[in-house]
Amino acid sequence: MAKRVILFLLTNLAITFVLGIVLNIIFKVTGIQSQSTAGILVLSLVFGFSGSLISLFLSKTMALRSVGAEVIQQPRNQAEQWLFNTVQRQSQQAGIPMPDIAIYHSADVNAFATGQLKITRLSQ
């Protein structure tokens, strides 16, 4: 638990540091003062878009790790084969690429899709 918190904090500090460098470059190139309204808007845009994009690109990995899910590469039993065939049929009918399918063991019924592109989506 402590390892995850420390890793989370270090990652956020590193991202903030890199974005700070990017902002300094933007402010120097454009001549915008960092204390001005335009500077605050640029700051908000850079941090807002960066946070959203990072979340989007990490969503698949985070979803898999958070529940300990296993991606089905090759169905191992009849239930997995049924699920695989069902998702494959539905994706073909919808005209989209076959998503990755993952299973995690839980008493709760749950299904969701995540990922930044149709090609890299994950269905659970």
From TrEMBL:
Keywords: Hydrolase, Membrane, Stress response, Transmembrane, Transmembrane helix. Its EC number is 3.4.24.-. It comes from Haemophilus parahaemolyticus. This is Heat shock protein HtpX. It is an enzyme of class 3 (hydrolase). The chain crosses the membrane at residues 7-27, 39-58. The lineage of its organism: Bacteria, Pseudomonadati, Pseudomonadota, Gammaproteobacteria, Pasteurellales. GO terms for molecular function: hydrolase activity. Coiled coil: none annotated. It comes from the Bacteria.
